[in-house]
Amino acid sequence: MPELPEMENYRALLIEQVLNRTITDIKITREKSINIPVEQFKELVIGERIVAITRRGKHLVFQLGNGYRLLLHLMLGGIMYVGSNQDQPKRTKQVIFDFNEKELFFIGLRLGYLHLYTEEGIAKELEKLGPEPLEPSFSFEAFLSIIKGKRGKLKTTLVDQKFIAGIGNCYSDEICYHAQLLPMKTCNDLTDTEKESLYRSIRYVLKRAYELGGYMERPLYKNDLLTGGYNQHCYVYDREGETCERCGHPIVKDELSSRKCFYCKGCQH
């Protein structure tokens, strides 16, 4: 499932590709991917410019010229692609936005969705999300205030979107590795030094992953050489049996609260 770095990468690249462009047509092949009747959706979206693209956690928000917002959550298996009739993935598209000379394909929205809301509706949908970990306001003091009293395991706490927005399976493992903490360690057992290490690792790993293009395998558009660049730089995620680059021990795959979990027994404690 795309996490904060992947969605931030998408946001930045989509600004280059479709910001301030007018949506001239829409094709919808799966009505369950949207939240209102197809004709009403088209009436409110076709002919509108995308005037801003923002991110909140794992969501993207497309702001339209008429004040409405499109809320995108790709969930498991969802991707996007900017192309044309001649340049597109050979997969079923649930929603297609036409911008005349190019198209934006929303693919794999079986669990994901593209919902249309007013500004107030968007705020209500996102109000329960935790803080944005890369924002300047997410200081060490702010982190201490939200982790205080937490008793769950590190991995399950990190993937809780009400705790911090945007972290999922991949980066919870990568963060724990970078902080040299086992993902099954409980939050209330962390020392002050470990809390500071965890905070710094959250910011470092997410920023590094975004700058490397995240781990999405398919490019956003033809000749996109950035998206998916993090695949070659994972510390532990999906590296079961490989050698830890820090201590030389083999990387272990385990299961924690029904989630796959990768870590190194040699240097995580």
What does this structure look like?
The chain has 269 residues and is of the alpha+beta class. It has two domains: 4-126, MutM-like, N-terminal (N-terminal domain of MutM-like DNA repair proteins), CATH 3.20.190.10; 140-264, Orthogonal Bundle (Helicase, Ruva Protein, domain 3), CATH 1.10.8. The protein is built from seven helices and ten strands. It has helices at residues 4-18, 38-45, 119-126, 140-147, 154-158, 169-178, 192-211; strands spanning 25-28, 50-56, 59-64, 69-73, 79-83, 93-98, 103-107, 113-117, 251-256, 259-264. The strands form three sheets. The protein has a four-stranded antiparallel β-sheet, with helices on one face. A four-stranded antiparallel β-sheet has the order 2-3-4-8. A hairpin with a 2-residue loop joins strand 2 (50-56) and strand 3. The radius of gyration is 20 Å and the shape is globular. The model has no long low-confidence stretch (mean pLDDT 97). InterPro entries: FPG_cat, FPG_N, H2TH_FPG, Ribosomal_uS13-like_H2TH, Znf_DNA_glyclase/AP_lyase. Pfam families: Fapy_DNA_glyco, H2TH.
